[in-house]
Amino acid sequence: MGKAAVAKAYADIRAALAVLDAEVEGHGPEPFSPADPLAGLADGCLDVLAGAREAEAGFAALKAKAAVTYSDSAHAVAGPDVPVQAQETAIAAEVGCVLALGPRAAGSFLAASHALATTLPRTLSALHAGDLSWQHALAMVDETASLDAAGAAALEAHFLDPDVPDPARGCPAGQMPAHRFRAKARTWRERHHAESIEKRHAKSLADRRVEFRPDQDGMAWLSAHLPAHQALAGWNRLTALARSMQGPDEPRSMPQLRADTFGEAVLGNSGPAGVAGAEGSGDAGLSSRIRAQVLVTVPVFALMGSTDEPALLDGYGPIPASMARDLVANGAGSFYRVLVDPRDGAPLEIGRTSYRVTGAMRAWLRLRDGKCPFPGCSNNSLDNDTDHILAWANGGTTGISNLGQPCRKHHRLRHTTGWAPTPATRNEPPGWTSPTGRHYKSEHQDWEPPWWPPGVQPGERSLLEEALLEQLAL
Asked: Is residue 184 domain-shared with residue 55, that is, in the same domain?
């Protein structure tokens, strides 16, 4: 049927959209809930949103496949006499005109579509089924771009194939925001890249720089590309300074306080004329009493220099073991020993019978959760609260399985609305239940067995693991 079939399919889709529009506006043939029409309409709109997300993903997969098929067909029709670069430019221009995209955006769309169609079949299939969004698919394309075929297939399978030996746990990839999925995919990629993170970091270090970009309304961006531990320490210090300046008489928001403090640090205590002084920040924001903090988790063999297993920088992800050793040797004020299971790398349970949470327990909690466990939140551990899931007054204990570390915004949300955390475990953060009763899984850390030093045989590893577990059980 060709074009007639396409025209009819899209006519049917437009008719379906009209039905959904009527339902959202409350003009459907019957209410979602005769007993409570308003509550039923609210719940029905969430169903419409969920369905729209799946439909959008399916359309994204359709666009990608159509673009690749068009590109292949156009190349074949053009024949071998047309220069390849000229033909690719012509194809991108045609796709850009149809989709109202600029040349660069059209080229990026075509490149991503080709990657999905040729090297990422699971991702394309999940996109078509509505399990992933286009933004999730782009994150997968970006994170597999520098991997070989086997590495790309392994990363894809880890997040999208539940039958692999060690699949991703917790919240499914498509149910977390794309920026959170990108962070988890990057973490897995860094640990499993064929080239050592030490070598890749040494190459990237040469690319450190500061950039200036003009913006609208008399504003501009000033950004720095730095080693991860320096950038994160700077961000954490700006956050701590901004928190210390908040109060009933401080009209500035946290982003404004961070920006003003950053400007003062770069320009000197005089600050930007007419900004810092006008709002009363003075020199207080640069107090040396507040130190930059970073939280780094480093495997003991990597700390000893026996392996090059990456360490984890809280709020960032994997870093070279050499960077972690340097942080421990030159910047660490204290250590917390957290025992992990040698079989899978997950932390082991600890607890207390009193209300107070110790510093060691806070560090363990940060290791388990990695961030605020609320769906989609990226607030890192050093800026979060510690919260009893079952309140102490209601019989809750101060054990890791009854603790969460929500950021202040989501901590307040828990106590002022119907949002509530679900139970946690020793190695799984709490999930959340919304006021409508929908359940959302938390993101889980992808724990992996620690790397053993070269020369340690499998039989020796088993004996060492058993001995360690016996000691931990005492």
From this structure: yes
